[in-house]
Design goal:
The complex is a heterodimer of chains A (142) and B (147). Chain A has 142 residues and is mainly alpha-helical. Helix content of chain A is 70%, strand content 0%. The longest helix of chain A is centred in the last third of the chain and has 25 residues. In chain B, 67% of the residues lie in helices and 0% in strands. Classes of the chains: A mainly alpha (142), B mainly alpha (147).
Chain lengths: 142, 147
């Protein structure tokens, strides 16, 4: 059943179009895939001439809430997980996205836009794992 | 120029994540909770992004160079292997536990939420552990596909 009070179709669609536009600009202007885990992870594998654009992109993302806050009210974030779970989850997301060569942006947005079978499989895998994990945490353990 | 455009595109990408609501982990978990009260917002975020992306990648296919110069750097790896699947599954488990994936985690870290800072540091540590493991297990191979 759909959670109508929390479902935000228009802002979701609008935000998605902005994300798509950012990925499109990055592809056409910089010639690169806007995959956040790859951009961030590449900083941990320093190669000459390959660092400045990565740092610039990450700094842009980090500054986005402050810049957004100048024009509109920043929406809040409800983070239910406790610290030990957040640490475990962070380790899994960090290592998993690097081992699997991508995350929601690289495989999800860009890979599906490229009609890449590899990214379709990756997206299906992380979505399925996410569905199962939330089912276990919310309905079996709770 | 590449760095300047990367900065502004990073800001735009972050703004898109904020507008979409995806920087709030409860929205992510609401989407992943199929058996509970389901919030389909994330599906519309993906749909909006992919519709624009489909056009962009069609245009990009006809180009050999980026507008700001340099070659187009698109992933060449087509293999569906154990790394891809195991890595994505591990990522999905972490995503379901915290409700954060890398982009929103960076934005929420930038916004200064305490719990996002902890998640972000753990995520970086996970990435560093991967780099260390790669260097020990596959010392000759460099430059794995970056997506």
């Amino acid at each position: 059943m759909i959670d109508w009070p929390h479902f935000t179709p228009w802002s979701a669609l609008a935000g998605g179009v902005i994300i798509g536009a950012a990925a499109a600009l990055f592809l056409l202007l910089n010639g690169r895939i806007a995959g956040i885990s790859g951009i961030l992870g590449g900083l941990l594998r320093p190669m000459p001439g390959d660092m400045a654009w990565r740092v610039a992109f990450v700094v842009g993302l980090l500054f986005s809430p402050a810049l957004y806050g100048l024009f509109a009210r920043l929406p809040g974030a409800t983070i239910e997980a406790g610290y030990p779970v957040l640490i475990l989850a962070g380790l899994l997301v960090g290592a998993g996205t690097r081992y699997g060569s991508g995350c929601t942006s690289g495989h999800g947005v860009c890979g599906l836009s490229r009609l890449s079978p590899r990214s379709l499989v990756a997206t299906a895998a992380f979505m399925a794992a996410g569905f199962v994990t939330v089912f276990i945490v919310r309905h079996l353990l709770a | 120029m590449h760095s300047l455009s990367a900065f502004f595109i990073g800001v735009l990408f972050g703004a898109g994540l904020i507008v979409s609501g995806m920087t709030d982990p409860s929205k992510i978990i609401g989407f992943l909770d199929l058996a509970g009260a389901w919030d389909p917002s994330l599906a519309l975020v993906m749909a909006g992004a992919v519709i624009v992306g489909l056009v962009a990648f069609r245009v990009a296919r006809r180009r050999t160079t980026a507008i700001l110069g340099g070659t187009m750097k698109l992933p060449a790896d087509r293999q569906i292997d154990r790394r891809l699947i195991l890595g994505s599954l591990a990522f999905g488990v972490g995503w379901g536990l915290a409700g954060f994936c890398p982009g929103p985690a960076l934005v929420a870290f930038g916004a200064g939420y305490d719990k996002a800072v902890v998640f972000f540091i753990a995520m970086l540590a996970g990435m560093a552990l991967y780099e260390i493991a790669e260097r020990i297990l596959r010392p000759r191979e460099t430059g794995a596909a970056a997506e």
